[in-house]
## 1
Amino acid sequence: MAQASGLDPLVDGEDERPKWDNKLQYLLSCIGFAVGLGNIWRFPYLCQTYGGGAFLIPYLIALVFEGIPLFYIELAIGQRLRKGSIGVWTSISPYLGGVGLGCFSVSFIVCLYYNTVLVWVLWFLLNSFQDPLPWSTCPLNLNRTGFVQECQGSGTVSYFWYRQTLNITADISNSGTIQWQLFLCLVACWTVVYLCVIRGIESTGKVIYFTALFPYLVLTIFLIRGLTLPGATEGLTYLFTPKMQILQNPRVWLDAATQIFFSLSLAFGGHIAFASYNPPRNNCEKDAVTIALVNSMTSLYASITIFSIMGFKATNDYGRCLDRNILSLINEFDFPEQSIPRDEYPTVLMHLNATQPERVARLPLKTCHLDDFLDKSASGPGLAFIVFTEAVLHMPGAPAWSVLFFGMLFTLGLSSMFGNMEGVITPLLDMGVLPRGIPKEAMTGLVCLVCFLSAMCFTLQSGSYWLEIFDNFAASLNLIIFAFLEVVGVIYVYGMKRFCDDIEWMIGRRPALYWRVIWRVVSPMLLFSILLSYVILLAQQPPSYEAWNPQYEQFPSREEKLYPGWVQVICVLLSFLPSLWVPGVALVQLLSQYRQRWKDTQLERSPKPEGRC
Amino acid sequence: MEWIDGTSLNAENAFKVRLSIRTALGDKAYVWDTNEEYLFRAMVAFSMRKVPSREATEISHVLLCNVTQRVSFWFVVTDPSRNHTLPAVEVQSAIRMNRNRINNAFFLNDRTLEFLRIPSTLAPPMDPSVPIWIIVFGVIFCIVIVATALLVLSGIRHRRRNNKGLPGLDDAEDKCENTITVENGIPCDPLDTKGGHINDGFLTEDERLTPL
């Protein structure tokens, strides 16, 4: 049995550890950490891609058998051991200390690139305070006879995003220069984060009331607005019509499991840190179930809002597609203005095709199907910065909606950043990295400064390509490994009996058989199969990316390019370097144990001095 | 191509014009009749007269043709002898110079009054000297910096006050008087730490031994 050193007995007494002002702060902090940008731009996309309402089935199954049990373990162990992730794992077993270090490193890496997304959101937010919005028109070319060529090819919103915001290069190896407008926003973002985490949970606890609740307010406003827009019902029916046959695709189940996993922000160490500030006798079982359910409900709520607005956008685009075709016909055949209503367009086109096919053939007519526009789904930054910004352009009072939307994204991301930062700061504070004389404000300032300097690479012109790499490779595989080790570590190394005893002390009753079975059997198996499938998928994934190249023949489609060799090496390193902490620390511990034992045997063998009192 | 007075002229120097009156004006749209055509010819002649070598252009030199219901037509400008058409380049530059006047005469704009093959000089976008986002950024950033400075200063002051007073006793006093233990959302109100301080130095012998 591993040495369980450093485990304090369970007492009701007070200690010096900071604590939450009230239960609501703690709940809001965990909810804010769990509910993030992924709830807005990943879940609706998955819902749409994987058969609408049918996706909810694997999602709920994953929630019940994987999400909530893992979350419960994290909260319980954090509340019991009252330390951050590094402290918790070193307490459970010195050989497992690497898990804590790994979680800490992943939290640090995620802090870097997650805040960069907030930088982009802040940039859009700042630019929303003007009418007309800057992404509604193209800039003029040099002799003012038309618009810039690149903008005409790609569309105003894509141009604003790729050229005026990112100023993106055509290749990842071409780093370009630091974009000063993004650099300024980076300074501002990290200052805001520092302002909020300056005293740990004492300061974030005050801000969280706003940052956790404001997104719900905005989502509700958007929902009401979205449902009253024309075309909302088409979007919603398209989204929620279940296509059951898609459940036969194993990819659906994998994506549901990974979505629940990342959505709850498991294995980052942030929830452990939050729970460690709880009073010892807090009902963590109720908390776990509540927070997980709130997170999933938020995802659903957000997808209703998003899809009513996407339905509006699709209907709008469909209408404009028809109008463009109608205008072409009218101009070519000199019909009176507005003489072809949208419904009569097919009949008129058929008639013209029969009578004068050559003239019709010369026209640039596009086929317009509403389903094609509804199908144009997007996830991730593409949804927020391109698709949604374009939808907002057509809503009356666009700047106000834009400010609300990007304000919501900013507060959503900020509350998730608090969790990430706590996953970094709490272990550092617990380990006592800096001497006691140095105040907490200096420590958090130092962490923010280091993160800010490291994140400067994302403000380069190739920054968004690098962010995609970090997003795809740095977090996913490592977190699944850590989660698997978490379950195995707590249930088998710490001991199921001891864990259940602790829970009984904390909440007043032992965990039901349901939990015990799931922890012992179902969750480890599920996590292991997810890990395997993920590794297989990652290996099969071609190491390519989509570059924005104005010189590409099929511009505005993005050009698929392979990662150069050195970038591929970095991808591989990112994928498993944080996990190497686990065997690394175990090895170091083993070696030091051997050395200790060897020293002890040496002491025994050496002659004892006489007269030792 | 038939022209109004039967003269067949060089179609290279002719320009097609397209008006979208109903799109621009909706209910207030006027009907395109010969009077409007007269006004158009007058505006084109006016534009040509502004060209240094063409001050003698008259309305009768501007010829319209093929007026459709769309409303679209072709026009061409002839020289005083009525035998040649003025070169396209001259007409182009003349129209471009006076595009705004022509648009306003018909209550239209560059999009609704189209001269095909004559690109319009687009109005420069409203470009304030300081971009708006920098102003908003400046305001927000100043607020954040001030708030951060205040927090840091208050932390320093709090710590200095703590260090100046007696360490230990002050903290205990502060803890007993200011903090209310909260567990599971229910504030605990331990009566024995309010109003009196138990001095452990005076623990009697009886209390240290277990009672019989």
## 2
Amino acid sequence: MEGVSTRGVLSHLSLLEDQASSRGSRVLQQPCRVKELKAKVEALTSQRDQLKAEIQTHKNLQKLRPSVDKRRVAGEEEDMDVDSESSELLRLMARHSELSDLLHAHHLIGGYDVIKTRQGKGMCFSLATAYEGIYLDTYNLEIDLKPKVRITRHNIPPFIPLNNLAEQSDLQTGLRAFLDTVSQHLNAFAGRKQQLQLVKEQHKSVEVMESNLLCSILVLMFTVPKEKTHMLCTLEYTNHTRCLPTRVHLESEDKRLPDAPQWKKNCSLLTEVPVHRALTAIRKSRDIV
Amino acid sequence: MDDSAKRLLQRLVRRIPTQMLRDTLDKWERLTAKQREFVDFTQSKWTITQELLAVCEERELSVKHIAELEMIYVIGNPNQGMWHTFQLVDAEDDAHSLELVQFKEQFKSHLSELKRNVAVKIKKHTDEAVWIRIAWGDTFSRPNHLKATYVVHYLQTPFVFVSGLLSKHKPLLLQALTLSTRHQGIKDANLSGQKLTAIRDLLMRQYQHVFPTKYPSPLAERNRSVSSFVHLDPHIENEQAEASANRHRMAGEAFGNGMLPALQSAVYKLETKFRDLTNETMTERDKPLRCVVKFSSPNILESLRHCASTGIASTPVTPLLSSIPLKGRNYFVITDNAPSASSQMCQTQD
């Protein structure tokens, strides 16, 4: 133990000796070092001033924003002490920052977001789809603004009738309405597709007899344990902007079964609740396996 | 088993590789397990044929059943032969709610009205594709199962893929398709290729597109493929890194990222006037110089993307090339009247 501590002390002493000798050489470097530090101080000061100015502008903008909304008279801005030209500029900047924040919020709640392309001559929209709190695919649309508003490029699958929708809501004047409709169609499609996926995962005893790419029709085969028979269930989703079916039709070898009160209840449940959840409930009530 | 069934079976055994033949027979489910074991797949194809013929005779299978076997094989191996794409236009109001059962009935009835003695088989595949096999006959002869036409269609999309169609049957097939899908017309989509999966993925947009975006997609992770090979060693700095990154971005935006559908050719038929200042004789001619340019590659979209990202082809990518994925076609006719095409032509000749 003593050997270790002696070694420790000795090495510490030699370390101190090195530091002392190097400090001696460092005395010569001090003026350069001082110059360096002074330059750094200046740079930091100017950065601080810049940041202070930005904060001030932001504060002014914040004050201006509610006034932009309610269009107050210029007189109320006197307390900020600016002349009319820069107040105009500040108002524009306020409006711009308000709109960017709105867009950001829109993006956060799962709406579409937009970016300018081709030096302002075009725009690219990103439409996100989600169902039951899970983000699904994102689709994109690139649109040219000049000379006419038209869609140039997109990755929307062909069973979504994009051209029909574009014709219905005149692109030149109703671009937002068009995008809202497309987003509705895409979200509903993503929802229906996700429901089908969940049915396949969660209800392996239910056989999927027919489906299609657009997920607008679904035919399921149930096994009814009590009557030892099968039930064919057809779900038609004729409204392509909705995730719930417009019509549910039940058929069985036992002709009277679909009219039984229990099954009438199940039928209406399937029109009101997403199919994977309805099936969980129906299976729980032991009507189907 | 009649002659045509025997001939078809012989053809199939010759055509299908032995291992796949075994799997296809399993899927076919027309032979018992014992019968399938009876066939010795290690023997020559001729022996296999004889054994299969014997087994099929036992089961009293007809040409319709053998046709089923062929269909199973083609559905499982669609990237053979030559597929041509057609596009349905002017949908009626009820086209979008067309059901499979409706379509099947209507197609069969329309086609048999147009031509007698056709054998039609329709099968729905798990990926929602509707496969149709047509053996054509006429008033005097029975359906010829050796030269069947195959049609693939996805309901609620405007595209139809056809293989093995003779020109004399084309108007009949197209009319039956148009009527049964509730449309008013059908046209050539100018997209053809050997790989059905490639042309289908291209039209269904089933590959990774690249769009300019402010925020990365909520599910996407950072894509490092572009910059990673540049910055593996931090001591190596790439000259013109920005230019290279720009080229990669533009190539990606034009063609897409990742694996691209394996289109194998692009054909440009030129009907433009000859332009070369050093060759007056040719330039003086009034008539356009007719010329066909064909690009071939195991995967032409990846080749073109590589050309653009490495600088072999100039960026921004010329519309002549980017039209392939954008418009979903690989056959173009370039005339002098098309403003974008001709201006590009002028540029490339500088």
